[in-house]
Amino acid sequence: MKTTGKTVNIPKLEISSQERAENKLTPESVDAGARLLRETGLVVIESVLPRDWIAELNIAMEDVLSNEESGHESEHPMLKMPFMDPRIVDNPFAMPILKAAMGEKIFAYLPYGCNTTRPGGDIQWIHRDSGQLFPELPFALPVSTIVVNIPLVDFTVENGATEVWPGSHLIIDDPAVRNSPYNVCDEERAAQLPSFQLEMPAGSVVVRDMRCWHRAMPNRSQTIRHMLALVYFRRFHHSPDAPGIFRSRVPAEIWNNMSEEAQEVYRFQTHD
Ligand SMILES: O=C(O)CCC(=O)C(=O)O
Questions:
Q1: pLDDT at 101 over 90
Q2: Residue 47 counted as domain residue
Q3: Are 231 and 106 in contact (CB under 8 A)?
């Protein structure tokens, strides 16, 4: 039987007015959010950022993207306000769920990204943003890369709200798919599994396991659809901040005489 996807619920974390007012999740909400993320691959917290501020951000974002070609800026335009606002880069609803899922030592890079579709924009291929951590194993390990998305306009079917396959973060790919560029997913297989378009108000926050199958959908509206995308990683073994160790600089004459293979192995080492 082919599922249509239409009966699939979007996994939303319902929070209290007090949590909204105080910008703080209760421990029970953090647990519930982390559980939805673990079991479905994503969790949506609707309308947590002020609409008027998000509307300003939407204009600022379009301004940055339309000036991208000029390239005269000495500083990156998104390493400034309003883009570096803590409501984005330290979002109080996403952060505790990220840490519950991936530990206290998560890390990320700046500037973050933006997924944009413009009027007339076409359908994207179905893909994962990250593969399985050990793709050769017949089971999925816990999440290690998560994207936080913040829509800057209301996301609707008409303007191409992202299509997502809940639970697909746990799917193990066949070797042929596993090795395809961008972790592209098999369309026929995906058509047999439930999906939904992520309709949600501007200023919602989505926490999504990057292994989830998803794609941008055609934008049939007259407006541009921006969505901020902040990527967070679980910290494994790279220890540049370990106190007192891994700090010594390797002199250039030694480094330059190491084989390419050895330089690759020691690539995080500081050297002259
Ligand atoms: O723009 C979208 O709706 C999703 C795009 C996306 O997440 C991606 O390209 O990885």
A1: yes
A2: yes
A3: no
Query: At residue 24, what is the residue type?
Result: K
Q: Which domain holds residue 66?
A: 17-236
In three-state secondary structure terms, 214 is strand
- Ligand 1 atom closest to residue 198's alpha carbon, by position in its atom list: 3
Number of independent structural domains in the chain: 2
Residues 135 and 114 in one domain: yes
Residue 270: pLDDT band (50, 70, 90) is confident
Q: What angle do CA 147, 106, 207 make, to 5 degrees?
A: 25
Output the average pLDDT for the chain: 91
CA dihedral 246, 251, 256, 259 (to 10 degrees): -40
Q: Angle between the 94-102 and 27-40 helix axes, to the nearest 10 degrees?
A: 60
Q: What is the pTM of this model?
A: 0.89
Give the containing element (helix H, strand E) for 230: strand 225-233
**Pairwise CA distance, residues 54 & 200, whole Å:** 14
Three-class DSSP category at 174? coil
Amino acid at 233: F
Residue 214, ligand 1, Cβ within 6 A: yes
Verify that 210 and 160 share a domain, yes or no.
yes
Residue 4, in any domain of the structure: no
Domain of 167: which CATH number? Answer: 2.60.120.620
Q: Average of pLDDT values for 137-149?
A: 96
Same domain, 203 and 260: no
Residue 93 alpha carbon to ligand 1 centre in Å: 21
Instruction: Please give the pLDDT value at position 245.
Output: 64
| Ligand 1 and 169: CB distance under 6 A | no
Q: Is the CB of 154 under 6 A from ligand 1?
A: no
Atom of ligand 1 nearest to the CA of 215: 4
The residue written with tokens 């939407």 in the block is: 58
Rounded distance between C-alpha atoms, residue 226 and residue 208, angstroms = 17
